[in-house]
Amino acid sequence: MVDDRDASAIVRLENVSHVYGSTGRGLRSRRDRSVTALRDVSVTVREGEVVGLRGPSGSGKSTILHAITGLLVPTEGSVELCGTDLAAVSGGERTRLRRRHVGIVFQRFHLLPSLSARANVALPLVQEGVPRSHRRERATTLLERVGLEDRVTHLPGELSGGERQRVAIARALSTDPDVLVADEPTGELDTETGTDVLELLTDIGRDRAVVVASHDNSTLAVADRVVTLRDGRVIEDGR
């Protein structure tokens, strides 16, 4: 298991456990209907590394992604994002860190149907207060990078599943994040289109950290390292 403190580490989970239904860090409610999702998990992801999270439904993959993005604070242990312990800062600061350092690719795209591909990609930049002209330029450049230079003004409903996923990837890259997290990124795609999307993620991972969660071994074939989970525990961390 990787646990060194080198400067290239973008994400570091140390002895992380998480209990859904607890009343706080290390606490349980009196009526304990809690579910333990993670048990003493330690994982490090470096710059330029694509790390896969493998395991069946309920193994803890999505909980790890939520912890990395700061969408949840684990019951025990620490999660560092770009050197900041997410449990040690306020909810507002976690949101700021997520917007600045993390790009999220959803399985079902989560594009706004009334907005063009370019406008969808530019949305995170609106939240950051980037001027409109710069947003348009950045979004156009990213759509060109993912091979959609001729789909800039198309609505999501006018795009194929693979094209919509490429728009979602471009949107996730809009703030130039340090880490990209993808939850079952090919789950809605056919095999050939899914392969194209995975190759794109691999290319993107050359200059940032990428974490891909999937139960599908073919999806995880692009990873430099695969972390296998079972019942919330890491049972293997390697190739």
From TrEMBL:
Residues 11-239 form the ABC transporter domain. It comes from the Archaea. SMART domains: AAA (SM00382). It holds the Pfam family ABC_tran. The keyword Phosphoprotein does not apply. GO terms for molecular function: ATP binding; transmembrane transporter activity. Gene3D superfamilies: P-loop containing nucleotide triphosphate hydrolases. Keywords: ATP-binding, Nucleotide-binding, Transport. InterPro entries: AAA+_ATPase, ABC_transporter-like_ATP-bd, ABC_transporter-like_CS, ABC_transpr_LolD-like, MacB-like_ATP-bd, P-loop_NTPase. Signal peptide: none annotated. SUPFAM superfamilies: P-loop containing nucleoside triphosphate hydrolases (SSF52540). The keyword Nucleotide-binding applies. One of its GO terms (cellular component) is membrane protein complex. PANTHER family: ABC TRANSPORTER RELATED (PTHR24220:SF685), IMPORT ATP-BINDING PROTEIN (PTHR24220). This is ABC transporter ATP-binding protein. The lineage of its organism: Archaea, Methanobacteriati, Methanobacteriota, Stenosarchaea group, Halobacteria.
